[in-house]
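Task 17 of the worksheet. Students: predict the tertiary structure of the chain below and write it out as structure tokens. Keep your answer in the requested format; marks are given for formatting as well as content.
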Amino acid sequence: MAMTGRIRSTLPLLTKVLKSDSPSSNVQRTLICPSFNKPEFSRNYATASPPKEQKVKVPLALYGVSGNYASALYIAATKVNALDKVESELLDLVEASKRTPTFSLFMKDLSVPKDTRVKAINEICAHAKFAEITKNFLVVLAENGRLRHIESIAKRFTELTMAHRGEIKAIVTTVIPLPAEEEKELKETLQEILGQGKKVKLEQKIDASILGGIVVEFGQKVFDMSIKTRARQMERFLRDPVNLGSL
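Model answer:
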């Protein structure tokens, strides 16, 4: 995608920054985020304060490092009505990291000085034309040595945005991609199961090891109709001793 391409094109710039010894400019602190007491979560990533403090409720309770950062970003992005844009930019950054080994190593390497990390992130975000709120959030991650968690943070942030939109992700595993008509029929069936107020978001997954059939996961439910599972069930049945007295 275009955004990913812009991020990947910053590799020469990233290499230059990593080799530079010049300190980064001071990062401008923004608003205080009232929901988090730890210093690393104690700022909002928006650049302008609303006239009146807007209370934002996180739709899901998330825990751990990734959950805390994702929740803080959700609150900040909601206040400036930028959920979709921030989500898109985070996912583009993750995709760029997966496709570019140098960028991926930079994100995970804690030996890179903090000033160098911050400067690189500022340059990359400027080149990729990220929103200010996304850039400020990534700067916070760079300052706190948390860039290595960006993939899990993006995943948890997506969970929050999906809950906000009333979406339920259904993972459909098959040996080959489902034809468009079958995918549509499956989505309509799942929508009927979930009822009104929820929207199904299908995610197709290809796994040759299931041998055939289909596995559908959504919410806390798993419908396993794969040939692999049926074969195992048949194998257990054949191994069970036959009770001749019941014949």
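Marker's comment: Residues 11 and 102 are 8 Å apart (CA to CA). Strands lie at 167-174, 199-206, 213-218, 221-226.
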